[in-house]
Amino acid sequence: MRKEIIDYLEQRPDLKYIIREQPQWYRKLSRDPLAIQELEKESKYFYGKTFGQKVDRLHEQIDTFSKLVQLFGK
Q1: Treating both helix axes as pointing N-terminal to C-terminal, what angle do 24-31 and 13-21 enclose, rounded to 10 degrees?
Q2: Of 67, 7, 69, nearest to 36 (Cα)?
Q3: Domain spans of the chain, in order of start
Q4: Tell me, what's the pLDDT at 74?
Q5: How many other β-carbons are positioned within 10 Å of the β-carbon of residue 25?
Q6: pTM across the whole model
Q7: 71 burial class (0-12, 13-18, 19+ CB within 10 angstroms)?
Q8: What pLDDT does 28 receive?
Q9: Model confidence over 39-72: pLDDT tens digits?
């Protein structure tokens, strides 16, 4: 793997963790260093930081809160 990619991964422990969990990324980055952008997109999905995942989490929290209100309201 290129030195620039290794240095970048040292600065981003979240991406480094993904590479350790999914070793195919190591091979992919070794062959194509520009795939780092694809890895960053994958990391958003992996860590639940996409817009859709945030909306789902908010919806679940609102659901839970409304159920608690119903439970204590009776």
Answers
A1: 110
A2: 7
A3: 3-73
A4: 66
A5: 20
A6: 0.72
A7: exposed
A8: 94
A9: 999 999 999 999 999 999 999 999 999 999 998 8
Q: What is the largest CA-CA distance in the chain?
A: 63
Token reading at 44: 């958003």
Residue 73 near residue 40 (C-beta atoms within 8 A): no
Of 56, 59, 20, give the one whose Cα is nearest residue 12. Answer: 20
* Tokens linked to 52: 């859709």
Structure-block tokens of residue 36: 């780092």
The first and second tokens of residue 1, run together, are: 């793997």
- Numbers of helices and strands, H then E, in the chain: 5, 0
The two tokens of residue 59 are 């919806």
pLDDT of residue 73: 82
